[in-house]
Amino acid sequence: MNSEIAIKVENVYKKYCKYLKKSMLYGIKDIGRNMFGLSSHSEKLRSGEFWANKNISFELKKGESIGIIGPNGSGKTTLLKMLNGIFWPDKGKITINGKVSALIQVGAGFHPLLTGRENIYVNGAILGMSKQEIDHKFKKIVDFADIGDFLDTPVKYYSSGMFVRLGFAVAIFADPDILLVDEILAVGDMNFRRKCFEKMKSKIDMGMSVVLVTHSMQGLIGIAKETILLNKGKIKYYGSTKDTISKYIDDTNRVASYGHINTATRRGSGEVRIVKAYIIDEKGNEITELSAGDPIRIRCSFKVNKPIKNPNFGFCICDAISRQIVLYANTYNLFHLDKLERDGEFEILYEKPNLGPRRYYLYGGIGEKDDIVPIDVWDDAGEQFIIKHTEKTKENPTSLFGNPITFSPYKFKLIEK
Fold first, then answer.
1. What stretches in the chain show pLDDT beneath 50?
2. CA nearest 89: which of 35, 126, 47, 40?
3. Half-sphere CA count of 114, side-chain side, radius 13 A
4. Fold held by 266-416
């Protein structure tokens, strides 16, 4: 294998059996056949078996990182366990070039009755560190884990977050050539996750390779140049992280069962209808992409079927995956118009939005100020748009998480035709 390659996965398959008794029976049969030099039929599916991974192939160079995303049950953790040597593939080949550290399961490698201090030495030894090396790095590990006064407490009393803190600290200071990280970082608090991503990035710059399984799209953007999208055990897409995330979001939006995911979802009495809503640049051209930190300009056209009194316009920007409102605008106390009787359009300008790199959609509504019943609400009023990652957000990892906000100063302009 090329000395520059850290991991090479070639046409890998891994199968499981859905039923425990059949799985044990198959295991006994396979062992018996192997004892007599016969094939164990590992390349074929038997009754009750399924492929957890199917025909997986990729390469990872030294000093690079790769992300693995996909819905639950898509085979991400199984693939990571094969890379760590916990499982062997039933078919295909995995080649590892270097020392591996892995964070795949909360509490793995820790003895519950031993203290945090003692487990640092136990887990460090499992990862190939000598006692002298652990002694030398002990303070750095403890400082990074930041578990306070619980260092000498048995870890069975630790929360899952404390387990992750200690486990990641030991794994990263073991100075592996390859680090395998599953979604367990999700149980850590935001500050610790940020610190982990910063540490992984610095280690990658020093030549470490990282395989990161995660549901955190924002964290992945700053770590991995390329990402694999798994679905039902197979690679559905493999490319740049941005393109893969976009593909995953599009797939998620198509199959999501949220009540307001369908663009045809409308409600209201209908005297006024939103015709179109979209993002524009400063010249008024329709756009679907902008960079983090850029002003956001929303233009919305509407048709008046019947005049209404005291119109109130509202608009939201929502996260395309979580469907959470992250920016909100309402004209209730912003301007006054006695009557709306002609078609027109309005514009909303957020000059300094605080939104991280991800995909968003628009949510619009029109009503009368003192009427409870809405006139028109369109839950997915416009084309989805994406805020792109920039060099500035790479320099500031906190922006990767794009802390959602519910209010930001905005300007409103109404144009009646």
1. 256-264, 394-406
2. 40
3. 13
4. Coagulation Factor XIII; Chain A, domain 1 (2.70.50)
